[in-house]
Amino acid sequence: MAEQSNTSRLSEPNWSTAFTKSHHVPFYVEDIDDKIGPDVRKLLENYSHVKPEEVRQHVYDIRDQLWAIRSYPCTGIGLWLQPTLPFSRAYPVILSRLKQGASLLDIGCFIGHDFRRLVSDGAPSSNLYGIDIVSHWDVGYDMFRDHDRFSRTFFEADITSPNEKLSMLNGKIDILMMIHVLHQWDWENQVNALTHVIDLSRKGALVVGFQIGSKGVNVRPKGEMVATECFWHNPETISRLWEQLGGKTQTKWRCESKFKTFEEMKWNPKDISYLGEDAIVISWAVTRID
User: Fold this and answer.
1) Is 50 exceeded by the pLDDT of residue 97?
2) Are the CB atoms for 78 and 265 separated by under 8 Å?
3) By C-alpha distance, which of 188, 197, 277, 183 is closest to 230?
4) With bands split at pLDDT 50, 70 and 90, how would you rate the model's confidence at 182?
5) Separation of alpha carbons 136 and 272, rounded Å
6) Are 173 and 153 in contact, with CB atoms under 8 Å apart?
7) Which of 69, 122, 140, 157 is deepest in the core (most CB within 10 A)?
């Protein structure tokens, strides 16, 4: 049984539960066959032992289960199928460090798809920790069919307001990842969340993220689908954010970041068009050097 968290509306906007019985939203695509690419098939066939002829139906059945829990854009569009962490230039370093015994915390881990890719690539699962504001974890086991062989620690928690169980990991984590999380908040709330991330890190820690960024206007106003004003980064602003965090927490960080196109992420730009023409993915990695 997952530990319940006092989730703020910042992390759990009303719309995330508003459409679970409807598909009439811009971020639900009926046909996600194009998301079932070679990498997805390889993981499901070789790691999860899903028969090739059953992969497609398996994916659609799992999406139905996920959508019934929360109506997230990544679910409706099918982005959850492709593990994101391997797109980071830091992935080989992360994999190597995990093989040497490092710990990793995935903040917003969803069904643990990045975890399965890491394990498939040879990382041990014993030092993997995952948190999310609501549990999709059992669906992850249905997806990957590995309940008897995947060892990890998962519990419900909100990084904007850590519970006691999450706080017990303070100062103990070597690698932290935040994928498709940061862009939902404004600058102030990003600082708040990342301050808690820094609390979890130890010296030498690596923090990796992928978020929706912007080639133009950074501040996105509050609206029907956005619970609060959002700040979408570019490489200059993400560096400035970590400079501010270093000053606030008396830590030092080396920041690297770059834009990635939707095509580079293997996303269909038409599926993301509702985000606007300035939207793009920003990949970043920061290393604690104090």
Assistant:
1) yes
2) no
3) 183
4) very high
5) 23
6) no
7) 157
Residues 6+ apart with CB under 8 A from 119: 47, 125, 150
Residue 24 sits at the vertex; the CA angle it makes with 140 and 44, to the nearest 5 degrees, is 25
Contacts of 63 (CB under 8 A, 6+ apart): 32, 75, 78
- For residues 211-221, average pLDDT: 95
Q: What's the rounded Cα separation, in Å, for the pair 25 and 124?
A: 39
Query: CA of 152: how far to CAs of 112, 146, 215, in Å?
Result: 10, 11, 37
Straight-line distance from the first to the last Cα atom of the chain, in angstroms, rounded to the nearest whole number = 38
Question: What pTM did the predictor assign?
Answer: 0.92
Q: Per residue in 122-152, pLDDT tens?
A: 999 999 999 999 999 999 999 999 999 998 8
Helix (H) or strand (E) holding 88: none
The tokens of 2 are what? 């997952």
Range in 14-28, 112-126, 152-166 with the lowest mean pLDDT: 14-28
- Beta-carbon contacts of 149 under 8 Å, excluding residues fewer than 6 positions away, are none
Pairing of strands 128-132, 201-214: unpaired
For helices 187-200 and 235-249, the axis angle rounded to 10 degrees is: 60
The two three-digit tokens of residue 152, written as one number: 């990890």
Tokens 């992969």 sit on residue: 55
Calpha distance 131→216 (Å, rounded)? 32
- Return all residues near 259 (Cβ < 8 A) that are at least 6 apart: 213, 215, 234, 235, 280, 281, 282, 283
Chain Cα centroid distance, residue 230: 17
